[in-house]
């Protein structure tokens, strides 16, 4: 699933292409929205909130979309060949100069802009909120420490605590903190530092498509442990282990170095 920085960058690019422009084509091909035609509407803004996108129009409505696992927005010049099949398109927003196509958008809703909070009000503070300050940091810390009996790796992924992290950043934050993903939140030495590190990593990558937590952009050098199961730890040379963390649809693959990240570990490991 795309991380918060990917959604943030998507909103930034859509905003640059569409904001202030009138739509000459505004098709919604989602089964629940096919009766709506947005042609003639002017796009006022495109905003991201955690992993949610809102395209706001001059009639007081917003188009909500969530990328989930396979969704994406593409930008084209009118008449350009689309890179994905037309039957996967769920939204086509075209101005005189640009065409934005939303592919495989499973979660979409057209709602009053004033009611956006109905879809995102339950979320914790957005780590990429441009207005992030002491109030947001304090609320994030309050929600984080309230999950004291839960595992660190799971809490970092919980959007109701802090919004924006996915499995890549959860994995890398745990490594950089030197803590096993199965460490209980109450045993995290500096919870505020964990939140600040999470925000720092997202900010570092918010304006580029490449995601790096090591400071390197070369292929194969971008992460410390994520998707490196069985390989040697970049710091100590120990083989990186992998296992499931979480239950059912919430289960994710955890990657960690047992030497650099001492602490609890699962009973079943793959490597």
Overview of this protein structure:
The chain has about 270 residues and is an alpha+beta fold. It contains 6 helices and 10 strands. The protein has a 4-stranded antiparallel sheet, covered by helices on one side. A hairpin with a 2-residue loop joins β2 (about 45-50) and β3 (about 50-55). α3 (about 135-145) crosses α6 and α5 (about 165-175) crosses α6 (about 190-205). The longest helix is centred in the first third of the chain and has 15 residues, at about 5-20. The protein is elongated, with a radius of gyration of 20 Å. The two termini are about 25 Å apart. The model has no long low-confidence stretch (mean pLDDT about 95).
Fold blueprint:
Elements: H1 4-18, E1 25-28, E2 43-49, E3 52-57, E4 61-66, E5 72-76, E6 89-94, E7 99-103, E8 107-112, H2 117-120, H3 134-145, H4 152-157, H5 167-177, H6 191-205, E9 241-245, E10 252-256
Antiparallel strand pairs: 1-6, 2-3, 3-4, 4-8, 5-7, 6-7, 9-10
Helix pairs in contact: 3-6, 5-6
Tag the structure with descriptive keywords.
6 helices; 271 residues; 23% helix; alpha+beta; four-stranded antiparallel β-sheet
Summarize the structure.
This protein has 271 residues and is an alpha+beta fold. The protein has helices spanning 4-18, 117-120, 134-145, 152-157, 167-177, 191-205; strands at residues 25-28, 43-49, 52-57, 61-66, 72-76, 89-94, 99-103, 107-112, 241-245, 252-256.
């Amino acid at each position: 699933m795309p991380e918060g920085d990917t959604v943030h960058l998507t909103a930034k690019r859509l905003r640059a292409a569409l904001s202030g422009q009138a739509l000459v084509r505004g098709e919604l091909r989602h089964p629940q929205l096919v009766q709506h035609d947005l042609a003639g509407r002017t796009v006022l803004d495109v905003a991201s909130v955690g992993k949610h996108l809102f395209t706001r129009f001059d009639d007081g409505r917003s188009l909500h979309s969530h990328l989930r696992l396979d969704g994406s927005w593409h930008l084209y010049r009118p008449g350009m060949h689309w890179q994905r099949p037309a039957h996967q398109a769920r939204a086509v927003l075209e101005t005189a100069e640009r065409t934005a196509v939303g592919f495989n958008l499973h979660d979409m809703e057209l709602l009053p802009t004033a009611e956006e909070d109905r879809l995102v009000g339950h979320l914790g503070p957005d780590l990429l909120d441009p207005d992030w300050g002491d109030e947001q940091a304090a609320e994030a810390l309050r929600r984080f420490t309230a999950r004291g009996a839960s595992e660190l790796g799971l809490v970092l992924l919980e959007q109701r605590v802090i919004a924006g992290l996915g499995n890549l950043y959860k994995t890398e934050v745990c490594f950089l903190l030197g803590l096993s993903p199965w460490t209980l939140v109450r045993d995290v030495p500096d919870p505020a530092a964990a939140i600040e590190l999470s925000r720092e990593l997202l900010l570092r990558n918010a304006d580029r498509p490449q995601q790096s937590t090591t400071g390197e952009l070369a292929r194969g050098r971008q992460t410390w442990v994520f998707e490196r199961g069985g390989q040697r730890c970049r710091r100590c040379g120990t083989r990186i282990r992998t296992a499931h963390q979480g239950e059912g649809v919430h289960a994710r693959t955890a990657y960690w170095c047992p030497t650099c990240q001492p602490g609890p570990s699962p009973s079943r490991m793959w490597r």
